[in-house]
Amino acid sequence: MNKYFIIGCISLVIGGCSVPKQLSLPERADVPVSTDTLSLDHFAAIFHDIHLKQLIDTALKNNYDLQAAAQRVSAAQANLMQAKNAWLPSLNVALSAGVDKYADYTLNGVGNFDTNLSPNINKDQKIPDPTPEYFAGLRSSWEVDLWGKLKGQRQAAYARFMASMEGRRLLTTQIVAGVAGLYYELVALDNEAEIINRNIELQEAALATVNIQKQAGKATELAVQQFKAQLLSTRALAYTVKQEIALLENQLNTILGRFPQPIERSSYKDINVLPALTSKGIPARLLLNRPDIHQAELELAAAKADVKAARASFLPTVAITPYAGFNAFKAGLLFQSPASIAWGVAGNLVAPVFNKKQLKAQYNISNANAYTAFYNYQQSIIQGYAEVATAINKLDNQQQTYLLKSEEVQILRDAISTADILYTTGYANYLEIITAQKSALEAELALVTTRRGTYQALVSLYRALGGS
């Protein structure tokens, strides 16, 4: 009878263990293969400026977002430690006390009454009524990981820990790029302010000249008004640039984790040297070094491990629960060895039967998360490739534009001198001088913008390649 009962229970357990099919994801998109190389002497050349290095060091030390990311890494590390030790048996010190009043028509009630009448027991062995229960010892529980559920959870925790590390590296790259970008913006604005101030001096000299010519009857009041209006417009532009500098300094100080204060920086001439760049293609090894791609890949690995653990939840769970200690129904007899020593062990085989809908729902959630992580990984590769390609194209185009703009500025500067000579000798009017000065100012500011765009493209390339 017992044999058939055990066989029936085992058949019920096995029959209830229908496991979902394994996860099957689509094929990964291949990164376009390039036999050409992208080489930069080293990206540190972008950040060779001593003041910029100091700002980056300050940001990496004080930035609050980066500090929060470090705490997220610590939390992920704690989860990993928890998952790594989940397969170990638990061992607890147990101290318990209780009392039971058994009814006369129960198994324990009748048994205790009959035992107390037995001549084979002494007075210490007589069972009191109500019956106390005292235990002091060790209790343990161990879930045997037959199907790899705990291993899957451990793998998921490890992948998420590594993903948090990549997330922190990604944030570090973004902070470095952000500091560098704002720094070069400030240097460019300093150059704009210098150009504007130089043009203000030229326009003041031109206004003084036309005033003298008006007094001599060689110029009209209209000419004076035109020169003065141009001067006022340029002075107003100087204040606009001054406000932009203050705004960027405050933004940079925020990234540095400190209150607003002046930003020490180099002059435009000191940093107006670009590192040597050779670009004919995008090698996959550099692209795949991006921390966001690593992070997405690790999140995908974690999601796959979650599916593995969810599938294993459909299979029977085997648990072993041993105990050992002192056990007695009288407090005074609890620690009388060896009479009060008790031990035992039990094994449990538990399989889900009526809660499989919940397990199925959890499996579907894990499965959907795995597909989401896969698509995010694919998207991060495509986006990374596009960002690198855009940065390289922008860098090349900005360099070509800079060469042309430099030539334009030189021609327009010469045009100012030519206009002054022609105006003095009577071969040009005052409007031609104003036009020449305005065109030269606009061209010089455009040249600064072009060079600023070149450095921003370099910073973007640094970020797009994952801070290599």
TrEMBL record:
The entry's keywords: Lipoprotein, Membrane, Palmitate, Transmembrane, Transmembrane beta strand
GO molecular function, one term: efflux transmembrane transporter activity
Signal peptide: none
Membrane topology listed for this record: Lipid-anchor
Superkingdom of source: Bacteria
Similarity comment: Belongs to the outer membrane factor (OMF) (TC 1.B.17) family.
UniProt-listed PANTHER family: OUTER MEMBRANE CATION EFFLUX PROTEIN, OUTER MEMBRANE PROTEIN-RELATED
Name of the protein this chain belongs to: Efflux transporter, outer membrane factor (OMF) lipoprotein, NodT family
Organism annotation: Chitinophaga terrae
